[in-house]
Amino acid sequence: MASSLESGGAGQAHLAKSDATRHISPVVAHELNNLLTIIQGYADRLALKHSQDSTLEAHLKLISEASRRAATVVRAAQPPRNNLPPRPQPDHAPLASAA
Taking the complete model, does pTM exceed 0.70, yes or no? Predict the structure, then answer.
C-alpha cells in the first residue's frame, strides 16, 4: 500500500513538472519574441537588399522563416491568458475621406 501511495505522489510530481515545462513565463516569452522579431526583420531587409545574390538571399530567407517558426513555438508555449481582457483588434477599414 505504501508503494502505491509513493508512486501516486511521484506521478503527481511528474505531472506538475511537465505542466511547468509546457509553459514559459510571459516575460521570457515577450523577450524571446522581441529577439525573434529583430532577427526576422533584419533577415527580411537584408534579403531584399541582396536579392541579386541568390545564395545569400536564400540563406537569409531560411533565417527569416526559422525565426517565424520559433515565434510560433514561443507563442504556443505561453500559458493561457484567461485572466486578461481580450486584446483589441486593429481596425483595417479604409479611412473615410474628409469631404
Answer: no
